Amino acid sequence: MRPLNSQTKKALSEATQAFTAALPGSPGEAYLRERKIGAKTAEAHQLGYVDLATAPEGWSQFAGRIAIPYLNMKREVTWIKFRAGPESGPDADKYAQQAGGGTHLFNVQALSAPGDTLVLCEGEMDAITLTGLGLAAVGIP
How far apart are CA 17 and CA 15, in angstroms? Predict the structure, then answer.
């Protein structure tokens, strides 16, 4: 992944803030609860919901999806992927992202977790779930 310029970092950070603010009371929050992902875990991963009414400019194509920010070791947002949510419909792709995103290791902070166990998961949601259970886990999409 190329280093992000300050304008991109700012845009990703602002979008993440908007999405996390939209999560409480949303269909996305209900979806996360069904998956046994509580508020503390969602907050730790800065999960959010893309509400069409409040989505920042340039992000409305992800309306109705769960926003999953990729955070670096400094907990700065380096990318955002979007998981189909309850409003996405049965024909929606499970995951979506802006063009040029590629594939990256999710939850890199777990690499510095204490202990001698690291769980390797298929995908972000499994890594998030296991992290919520107290395990150090990374996800490979």
Answer: 5
Q: What is the DSSP pairing of strand 65-71 with strand 48-49? A: antiparallel
Query: What mean pLDDT do residues 117-125 have?
Result: 95
How far apart, in whole angstroms, are the C-alpha atoms of residue 121 and residue 114? 18
Residue type, 49: Y
- Write the CA distances from 25 to 16, 20, 31, 127, integer angstroms: 17, 11, 11, 23
Where does residue 93 rank: exposed (0-12), middle (13-18), buried (19+ CB within 10 A)?
exposed
Q: Is the pTM of this model over 0.90?
A: yes
- Can you spell out the DSSP letters for 84-126? E-TTS-TTS-SEEE-TT-----B-GGGGG-SSS--EEEESHHH
CB 31 within 8 A of CB 38: no
Using CB atoms within 10 A of its CB, is residue 103 exposed (0-12), middle (13-18) or buried (19+)?
exposed
